[in-house]
Amino acid sequence: MNRLVQFATIAAFAAPALAQSAEWGQCGGQGWTGPTTCVAGTTCVFSNPYYSQCLPGTAVPTVTPTETPTPTPTSTPTTTAKPSSSSTATGTGGAAPTAVIGAATGPGLNKYAQAAGLKYFGSATDNPELTDQPYIAILSNTNEFGQITPGNSMKWDATEPTQNTFTFSGGDAILNLAKGNGQILRAHNLVWYSQLPSWVTSGSWTNATLTAAMTNHISNVAGHYKGEVYCWDAVNEPFNDDGTFRTDVFYNTIGQSYIATALQAARKADPNAKLYINDYNIEGPGAKSTAMINLVTSLKAQGVPIDGIGVQGHLIVGELPSGIEQNLAAFAALGVEVAITELDIRMTLPSTPALLAQQQKDYQTVVAACKAVSACVGITIWDYTDKYSWVPATFSGQGAACPWDANLGIKAAYNGILAGF
Ligand code: G3I
């Protein structure tokens, strides 16, 4: 372990009458207005400028901000089996501890993910959320999150709103947050049918002109972030649910080869970024998963660079597909890494204790499936809190899909994730 340690004990002389943070609760950080002392048996430990936390014991090592390592953009996927389910983050064996429902943080999702052999547990975020200090404090806690995905700001409409004019301020802000925290960044995305500016969707293209515009976009965007990101969702959602190719502007103009061309351009722009194809409704076996297997098999046979399959994981409480682990293993057998890239598990509102308990089980099922497949490198939730979930705006009457509620309090789903690890 090459990390230096710092002990930051803030609680020692606290007046007993003041409110104290519970074990695992927040006790300091920029913008924090809550208690700065901890309950007996725990110590307020500095984690980063945004976050201090009440940890069990009297002195716990943490990484200081200046000692936070910059994430290595790439590393090879794990090929060895992950630790057995009896191992824990503390290495003591036995069942994982549970978080206090309603607390801001718990034993640590990223900590337990890494102890289970994953590279990271992460969350999506978006630029309007960056001014929400309590939200950022939790997102920046590397016990909880070792990885961030920008939910919107690296997409085509954000980065190239008019042809050949590039804006990176939104994406840069999220990359800088991740770098400052020592978190990996999954970059999202380069070629997708949605969130395209109208000059792309409404242009009069030929195969040659659209190929040139697409490769120019990729070389500029992936080139701007060269060396800074762990991976790119290079091609997003190329399939219909029946496994046929989605007939978007790229497919209709260029044909299926737009995928290989995009991957080759991305590799050229950032040779060290892992290149993923990312899609939804490929969690379990079925026509769409088979189509993904066929595509990746064909790309590999042609020598086209492809390093990973992203399984989004936008799921419904009580309706998980069966065979998730076997499906992830089938993807991994192609010689690529696998990641759960956009996990959330929604329900019809209002939430009830029964729905929240089922959601806890469902999160555990997905996490356990990833843990069981050695090539499954990480899990990203599509924002960690119901406060910023995309679900209610898209699915009327549904929501409560995230492991933290809209008040930034932990839900039972959190403990399902811990149990899955
Ligand atoms: O940028 C405009 C802003 O100018 C305007 O004021 C505002 C008013 O509503 O809308 C803003 O655009 C919104 C955009 O997010 C940025 O916030 C769009 O309306 C909204 O539809 C868009 O939603 C995003 C969605 O992708 C679009 O498909 C979600 O935030 C984002 O979480 C979601 O993410 C996708 C993944 O990229 C791919 N997989 C599915 C996933 C969920 O849909």
UniProtKB/TrEMBL annotation:
Gene3D superfamilies the record matches: Glycosidases
Pfam families, per database record: CBM_1 (PF00734), Glyco_hydro_10 (PF00331)
Annotated GH10 domain residues: 112-420
Localization: Secreted
Recorded catalytic activity of this chain's protein: Endohydrolysis of (1->4)-beta-D-xylosidic linkages in xylans
Entry annotated with the keyword Hydrolase: yes
Recorded GO MF terms: cellulose binding; endo-1,4-beta-xylanase activity
Biased composition (Low complexity): 75-95
Class in the EC hierarchy, top level: hydrolase
Active-site residues per Swiss-Prot or TrEMBL entry: E342
GO terms for cellular component: extracellular region
Keywords, alphabetical: Carbohydrate metabolism, Glycosidase, Hydrolase, Polysaccharide degradation, Secreted, Signal, Xylan degradation
Region (Disordered): 62-95
Top-level division of the source organism's lineage: Eukaryota
Transmembrane segments: none
Enzyme Commission number(s) from the entry: 3.2.1.8
Signal peptide annotation: 1-19
Family: Belongs to the glycosyl hydrolase 10 (cellulase F) family.
Protein name as annotated: Beta-xylanase
Provenance organism: Sphaerobolus stellatus (strain SS14)
Lineage: Eukaryota, Fungi, Dikarya, Basidiomycota, Agaricomycotina
